C-alpha cells in the first residue's frame, strides 16, 4: 500500500469519525422550547377495583383461605412427611456422631493446653563441671 493511499484512508476515517461525533452530540440534546402536549386528549383508564392488581389480590386471598381450610393439620401423618422421613438419618446416628466429635474436640483442646503450658526443665549449671 502506498503512502498516499494510506494517508487518504486515514483522512477519510478522521473526517467520518468527527462528523459522527458531532451528529451524536447534537442528537443527544432535545429542544425544550416546544410544547407538544397542548391538546392532550389521551385519558387513562379510571383506577378502581377492576384492575388486574385487585383481581390477582382477590384470587390469591381466596387461594390462601382455601389452603388454610383444607390443609392437613400438623399432627396428621401425611404421605409427603412419611416419604421424607424414610430418607432422613435417624437421630441415634446423629447423637453418636456428635458425641464422637465432642470427645475429639476435648482431646484436641487438652493437647493444645498441654503444649501451651509446657516449660523446659530446670537446668542445674555447675561453675566448674570438671
Automatic annotation (TrEMBL):
InterPro entries tied to this protein: Nuo17.8
Cellular-component GO terms for this entry: mitochondrion
Name recorded for this polypeptide: Uncharacterized protein
Amino acid at each position: 500500500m502506498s503512502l498516499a493511499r494510506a494517508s487518504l484512508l486515514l483522512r477519510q476515517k478522521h473526517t467520518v469519525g468527527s462528523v459522527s461525533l458531532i451528529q451524536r452530540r447534537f442528537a443527544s440534546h432535545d429542544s425544550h422550547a416546544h410544547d407538544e402536549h397542548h391538546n392532550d386528549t389521551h385519558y387513562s383508564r379510571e383506577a378502581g377495583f377492576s384492575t388486574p392488581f385487585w383481581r390477582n389480590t382477590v384470587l390469591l386471598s381466596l387461594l390462601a383461605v382455601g389452603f388454610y381450610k383444607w390443609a392437613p393439620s400438623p399432627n396428621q401423618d401425611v404421605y409427603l412427611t412419611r416419604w421424607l422421613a424414610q430418607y432422613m438419618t435417624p437421630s441415634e446416628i446423629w447423637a453418636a456422631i456428635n458425641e464422637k466429635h465432642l470427645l475429639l474436640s476435648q482431646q484436641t483442646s487438652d493437647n493444645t493446653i498441654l503444649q501451651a503450658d509446657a516449660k523446659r526443665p530446670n537446668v542445674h549449671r555447675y561453675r566448674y563441671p570438671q
